[in-house]
Write a structure and sequence with these properties.
Keywords: Coiled coil. Residues 1-46 are annotated as: Disordered. Residues 451-516 form a coiled coil. By secondary structure, the chain is mainly alpha-helical. Among the domains are: 1-73 and 215-287, no CATH class; 489-545. It is 55% helix and 6% strand. It contains 21 helices and seven strands. The protein has helices at residues 31-34, 65-73, 82-89, 91-103, 119-131, 135-143, 146-151, 169-178, 187-193, 215-228, 236-244, 253-257, 268-295, 301-312, 329-337, 343-355, 378-392, 419-430, 433-485, 489-508, 515-545, and strands at residues 3-4, 25-27, 55-57, 199-206, 321-326, 356-357, 366-373. Strands 5-4-7 form a three-stranded antiparallel β-sheet. A two-stranded antiparallel ribbon has the order 1-6. Strands 2-3 form a two-stranded antiparallel sheet. Residues 5-55 have low confidence and may be disordered.
């Protein structure tokens, strides 16, 4: 059982409208900071010691409606079920799907000219990157089961655990020093422990057995995040608690009142990012609920309600992820653990720490890091990070991840990779028996099957195009026939004049005692003729414009 955090308050209470925060800049120099001993400050502190205090920009909340609209416009919907694509057609099919989404993303890779923009480069290098990792690991990464298969001891198929189990690594170091027999450690683990080895990693937000939060927990987190950026004074205390959850009590309600939210840092762009993520994640949860409702629609209403309630308390069947690249795996992990996180990721974690705790008052969820790939060249470092971001759908605007900046840009460590170092890394990859076997399977089986599927799709598209061309030709002929059958403007006016003559005959047939009737007929006939003239003018005016 978990201990729930504070009750989530309605975002729009009727008795208290959001107030405007005044935008200002100030130095945070309250006594709270000055009384804190120097030893209490960690190297990663955002506010370090008093001697290292930073200028904090405030923000006016709520943000203007234009920012809300901008946030909504950033949202993207998933285009592919990457897990199914890989299972059906292999590496190249998976890479082509990722490249299609990448091409729609306006990534900075498209500035200038480089092979990072080329599908052929993605296919060749991407296939080698993916074939270098265990196939079962890639499949688990795509279907969201990786953390459970690694962390849950009761999983019947837990062979993936050995790829991340570094518990015997200290014994391996000791064996090297004493020249004794080393313990059995998976080569995947040993690769990550070498000095300055570039690697790709994924961080997953999970509990102790690898489960993601439930839909109900995620909706609670979303509500708190929205309240955090609402500017409503009802939530000042909530904002303080969120700010201080992992930061040794540095914010107070006066800070919040002045717009000095720790996770916003005075940035409307950060507010937009939070709104985008929350809205996108809500959409994912709504889609998940629709699927669950469809699956239980044949149940009795009472049973359906019970199953829907149970579904809201089951972990979501996907991972909440952050994908990254590092030139040194151990250093990057320490950086994350010491607080080197993005604002969105840190805010989400703080909200969940506050709301979801065990009976022992320990946070239920945590970030766990898994090494998922090893690039062997600078361009692979750049392209590979973007590839993994796409296939794990880890960008924040899709609702499943926390990557904000475009991937593949913060790879400065690749400049240190010499040609000799790249050759050494390539040699490690090529000596990986699994790599050779999986790449052989790709090009002898999966790629051929994918090629046949593409041929069928091309043939089907050609057939659809042929049918559309035939339908277009038929419509064009029908339009031409209608034009040939249509009468001219002069003919239309002549017909209207003949009709007017019939009206006059009817008017003239009225006797002297029927003058009121004649007057009424003349007025009515005039209205009809005037309307006829207007209609003819309008019809032939439109034809003239065509």
């Amino acid at each position: 059982m978990e201990r729930q955090g504070p009750n989530v308050i309605d975002l729009n209470p009727s008795d208290n409208q959001p107030r405007q925060r005044q935008k200002k800049t100030q130095m945070r120099t309250s006594n709270r900071f000055n009384e804190r001993p120097e030893s209490a400050y960690s190297p990663g502190d955002a506010y370090a010691s008093p001697a290292h205090q930073v200028r904090c920009e405030s923000i006016r909340l709520p943000v203007a409606q234009a920012h809300n609209l901008t946030a909504q416009a950033k949202i993207t919907k998933r285009s592919f079920d990457y897990s199914s694509v890989f299972m059906e057609s292999g590496y190249v099919a998976l890479i082509d799907a990722a490249f299609a989404d990448f091409s729609e993303s306006r990534h900075p890779f498209f500035k200038g000219k480089s092979e990072l923009q080329e599908n052929s480069f993605w296919r060749l290098s991407g296939a080698e990157i993916l074939a270098d990792m265990p196939r079962s690991m890639l499949q688990a990464l795509l279907d969201g089961s990786l953390p459970q298969k690694v962390e849950n001891q009761d999983q019947p198929d837990n062979q993936l655990r050995e790829y991340f189990d570094d518990s015997k690594y200290p014994d391996d170091i000791k064996a090297g020093c004493t020249k004794s027999n080393p313990p059995a450690i998976n080569p995947w683990v040993l690769r990550s422990k070498q000095d300055s080895v570039p690697a790709f990693y994924v961080r997953c937000f999970i509990d102790d057995i690898g489960h993601a939060p439930t839909p109900r927990q995620l909706r609670t987190a979303i509500a708190c995040m929205r309240q955090y950026v609402s500017g409503n004074s009802d939530y000042d205390n909530l904002c303080v608690r969120i700010d201080n959850e992992s930061r040794a009590n540095r914010s107070d309600e006066d800070d919040i009142n002045q717009g000095l939210h720790h996770f916003l840092a005075g940035s409307t762009e950060r507010v937009e990012n939070i709104i985008t993520f929350c809205t996108a994640l809500e959409s994912v949860l709504d889609d998940l609920l629709d699927v669950q409702v469809e699956q239980t629609q044949d149940e009795q209403p009472q049973d359906q309600q019970i199953q829907d309630e149970q579904a809201q308390n089951r972990p979501v069947p996907f991972m909440l992820t952050y994908v990254g690249y590092t030139g040194n795996e151990s250093n990057r992990t320490r950086q994350h653990e010491s607080g080197g996180e993005s604002h969105l990721k840190s805010l989400f974690e703080s909200v969940c720490r506050m709301n979801f705790r065990s009976p022992d008052d320990v946070p239920i969820f945590k970030w766990e890091t898994y090494i998922i790939g090893y690039p062997v060249s600078p361009d692979e470092c750049k392209m590979g990070e973007e590839l993994y971001c796409q296939i794990t759908q880890s960008y924040y605007n899709g609702g499943l991840g926390f990557n904000i900046a475009p991937a593949g840009l913060s790879t400065d460590s690749t400049k240190k990779l010499s040609q000799d170092e790249c050759k050494r890394l390539l040699s490690i990859r090529e000596n990986n028996v699994m790599f050779v076997e999986q790449l052989t399977q790709e090009f002898e089986e999966d790629f051929l099957r994918y090629g046949e599927r593409v041929k069928r799709e091309i043939a089907e598209q050609a057939e659809r195009r042929k049918r559309l061309d035939q339908e277009h030709a038929q419509l064009k002929e029908e339009a031409a026939q209608l034009k040939r059958d249509a009468i001219s403007k002069e003919q239309s006016l002549a017909v209207l004049e003949e009709f007017r003559e019939e009206q006059r005959k009817l008017e003239d047939s009225c006797t002297e005692s029927q003058q009121d009737l004649r007057t009424h007929l003349e007025r009515h006939h005039k209205d009809v003729i005037d309307h006829g003239h207007e209609y003819i003018q309008e019809v032939f005016k439109e034809q003239g414009s065509e």
